[in-house]
């Protein structure tokens, strides 16, 4: 694909209207079950953690309850750590890495930190292995008021009472080959813009906040993850996905200005992870383990430097 004419929906140079969104939605196929993969896993955590339903997505005929997992021994005197996954439903290890962290590691922080984990923010997209929600909106550009995405609005309501008390927020993502083959061409078509081909970095990297960088925090996470999987190198321009590499495996975005999930709180320590599940050097298990390792390293650094 090298221009919007290659995408099967829309007219090149013209943004989509309701008819094009409906045509796009009609092409989406349910490939997996949120109930089976995610809800049942969360139910298995009930005995050890509090599980709260913080909203419901209504996309008739589908209805998706949204769940967050919370420390059972919540103590307002302790720092709060927020972990989010599945903002983009197709980024599988973001969901299962968050669940892995809760299952294997969250208990280690009992009495030291309050944990709030929202593992699958966009279940409609999780089932269809897509970046956008039912309305062809990217939830990860929608963390602003008023939000155009039900998924983002629900999470912001959940976090609002804690927003200024959250010390650390880590948002778990993937970069996949389908970013280049499907999602970026679809974005160009939806917005009536030309598609500009890019490259997919091979390995794990982080996105720091341009406005409030925390380089030592980012490097602590990189150091932990490189024991699990490889770190993405800079390209020949010294960049990863078009952004300057400021340290090994680290780039920066203005998180809040872009409406990104990682920019939704006033947390001192924030980051977005990106793993590459299509790499011949990584397995799905490694990707999930890398996400969990990143969460542990993020919490450990925040606690040590709070």
Describe the protein's architecture and organization:
- With 306 residues, this protein is α/β, with parallel strands linked by helices.
- It has a single domain (4-304), classed as 3-Layer(aba) Sandwich (Aminopeptidase).
- Helices cover 31% and strands 19% of the residues.
- It contains 8 helices and 10 strands.
- The protein has helices at 18-26, 34-43, 92-104, 123-128, 150-159, 177-191, 215-225, 284-304, and strands at residues 50-59, 62-70, 80-85, 114-118, 166-174, 205-209, 239-240, 243-244, 250-253, 269-275.
- The strands form 2 sheets. An 8-stranded mixed sheet has the order 1-2-4-3-5-10-6-9, with helices on both faces.
- Strand 3 (80-85), helix 3 (92-104) and strand 4 (114-118) form a beta-alpha-beta unit.
- Helix 3 (92-104) packs across helix 8 (284-304) and helix 7 packs antiparallel against helix 8.
- The longest helix is centred in the last third of the chain and has 21 residues, at 284-304.
- The radius of gyration is 19 Å and the shape is globular.
Instruction: Give helix and strand order, one letter per element, not per position.
Output: HHEEEHEHHEHEHEEEEH
SS field, number of helical segments: 8
Q: Please report the first level of CATH classification, the CATH class.
A: Alpha Beta
Major sheet characteristics:
8 strands, mixed
Detail the poorly predicted runs.
1-5
CA distance, first residue to last residue: 48 Å
Instruction: Note the overall shape.
Output: globular
Structural class: alpha/beta
Please give the share of residues in helix.
Answer: 25-40%
CATH architecture: 3-Layer(aba) Sandwich
Report the strand count: 10
